[in-house]
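Good morning C.,

I know you're traveling, so I'll keep this short. The sequence:
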Amino acid sequence: MTAGVREQPRGADSPRPRPGTRLRLVGWLTAVAVLAGVGYRLWLLGQAAPPTNSDEATMGLAALHIVRGEGFPVWFYGQQYMGTLEAYLAAPVFALAGGPSLLGLRLPTLALYLLFLLLSWRLTLRLTGDRWFGLLVVALLALGSDRIVKNQLIAGGGYPEMNAAGVALAVLAVDLAAGRPGWRLARWAAWGFLAGLMLWVDPLVLPYVVATGAVLVGFCRRELWGAAGALLGASAVLGAAPLLLHSLLNGRNPLHAVLAASGANATAGWADRLHGGLLLGPPLGMGFCAPGRCDTWQLWWALALPLLLALGAATAWRALRRPPTGAASPADLASPAGPASLVDPADPGHPVLVAPRVAAAIRLALVLAAVVTLGAYTVSSSAGLTPVESSRYLSCLLISLPALLWPVWTVARRGPRQSATGRRGLGRTLARPVALALLAATLGTAAQATWRSAQTAPATRAAEARHAELVSTLRQLGVRQVRAGYWTCNRLTFATAEQVVCAVVDDALRPGFDRYPAYRREVDRAAAPAWVAPAGSPLANALDERQRANPGDLDLVTIDGWRIYLPQ
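The tokens, ready to paste straight into the viewer:
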């Protein structure tokens, strides 16, 4: 400190950092969070994680057939639901790379994740205008537990594109309902096309299509009676064209197949459904659990989610019912209802905020869509029969994250508003610490689940190396047709670009479910197809028993993790 100059304490009149400085800081931090999320997933892809399977390989085979011009599948092979958009996205990558690969299959899903992340940030700013809250949302979505990265990176049908499309629908609905000028017909067309496209790809996102569509009807009824409505309808038909044409040409109703896949033709007790849907489902499906299971302490999110849904719905409804006013007051800016300004005061050239009633309507729509998604999953038999794996059906809940956490954020950052007497009760005094603890627990639990998931990557890479050795050994042995289990067959066929063709058998050596029947026909025509089984599997035990019963019938070749049986 310079001699003779006394340091003055910072008071109310002391200079504060300029808004531009704070904006640059939060902008850089947000960019770092985005890069961290993408970088983490790139590292996983380099480790061949999350582990692939025959279902993902089936999508890869569809992409390979598209590149070769051998077929243009509408549905995932072997079923009449779940569109093959991921195969059409991967086909150009295969063509440019000169052949199929797991990395080439997953690069489009990584791009879809990046799109989801950026659109979520944009939606958060549109609804709240709070860039620091936008940073929180991006940071949470940059994390990735085992279930989350599987949903986002595995090209198994529907899940990587649903979240990106759902957030895009919400962003378009915000701009249209708020009356944002310019490109309005293009926005109407984009909303309709995405809605129709998702109807073909996977109906799990339909609650978000209906909810955001209801907002558009509520705010843009007159506009929808004109060219905008006609363009939206035509675009929706175009997006759903694969589904509509296939249904008309074949006379099949895809809704029946969807219901069957959800477990509608199976039975599960209500106790199991409630346990899987309301207790295990939310923490597993939203990224708060370790790979394949939830520890007891991680189930706290199942208790917090209903409270967040209720709080988010109540604050959004209250803001929606509030009479419109002119300029925004400080109380409006500090309340969960959101700001009333149409632009960011610190950056007038970059509009990020919308009218409070539009923001409230979209937040309410996101909360209600989450309630419908959770309720539909809970009443399905899948929640009771396979709760761990079926928790992927809740992946769309991440779309609602900004609406769920916004009321908590406002309390944590600004504290509860005072009562009319200027006093605060015990509940209001504790509100801010509780909100801070909830946000910290959310970040901490998701980070811990991400760390546990990252620890499994070396084992996944080792398993992929063993599979690569299997492929190399089959090529050296000159094997071109094999019989194997379901989770081996299409993965093997895709890894060899159909140089090895596989027919599915069950553990009793009987014919199994072949998603692509042409492979079975080729194997049945072969003189002496080989058998392939993972070491220690029931199929390997059955083949060992056959070998003992008929010595000399099969020659055994063993490699790390696999057993190959060559007929004499």
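Safe travels,
E.
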